[in-house]
Predict the 3D structure of the following.
Amino acid sequence: MLYWLTSLSDGGDVFNLFRYITFRAGGAFFTALIFGFIFGRPMIDLLRRKQKRGQPIRDDGPQNHFVKAGTPTMGGLLILAALTVGTLLWARLDNGYVWMVLLVTLGFAAVGFADDYAKVTKQHHAGLSGRVRMLIGIVIAILAAAAAYVMHPAALTGQLAVPFLKDVLINLGWFYIPFGMVVIVGAANAVNLTDGLDGLAIMPVMIAAATFAVIAYMVGNANFANYLGVHFTPGTGELAVFVAALIGGGLGFLWYNAPPAAVFMGDTGSLALGGALGAIAVATKHEIVLAIVGGLFVVEALSVIIQVLYFKRTGKRVFLMAPIHHHFEKKGWGEAQIVIRFWIIALILALIGLATLKIR
């Protein structure tokens, strides 16, 4: 919205600053961060009054989780409100990629909110029907992938870029749309499965998002893209503003989600943030890199898939409990120990993901 101020610029005044993505990204970050600090406590108090007993705790979960009974959920609303305000204020609203990613984020947030609402009102961890949740997510993701298919430049339409290989593109044609759908839905559900301990999901999400802010900025700039040998995707640089708002909102949320958490992110936040990461990866043509940068989320999702399939086949379990962070809890690791070690892993994977920009 503030980008229109550039129309008042003669090229040598303060209004000219609004032309720069880096300046507006900084503005989006601080706007979302301040929003989170100002409205965080009032929102938590409101959620506590409305929910009364908070998020239900699973009976078959780790015993130390019962001390968290009564903690309100849907804290993702704080992140979403902050990033939406930051994005609408500072991003170029004539950019299709910004709207695609923002609408995916809010769409998955609506699904997560319905799921959280069902859990809180019924006081049962089942929530919304898994089939309904998956079906709505697939529809949102297909529409987003189709939009990206149309917006990508002709040379990249329907193409899958391969990291570490400079000029390699795999032509998926129209099959790119269902592929993009899998990326978005997979990312949303993987982050959702990771959100099981105080602060566990939000920091890796911010680390992955920061990585993709760099990627979006680079592939959206012809000079940087040419220097690095990556595929130039015009317009995607503007996603750095969205990501900056996400990180600012995420930090504001982490202030209250740090152990012991005053509020849980809930499916409202985890599905939305995972969907956002998937949509950004599709927009920037770095879908495979997301599997590297978000490797922690991939492992969490795989641990659940392996556990379910192996149990159905043999009646036995591979892990003491899935997702895998609960396995380590069962083995006696402390919550803070698991969270911080997973943060370190997320940072290492992000650095490997960034290396794909140069190692070609």
User: Anything to note?
Assistant: Residues 27-290 form one domain.
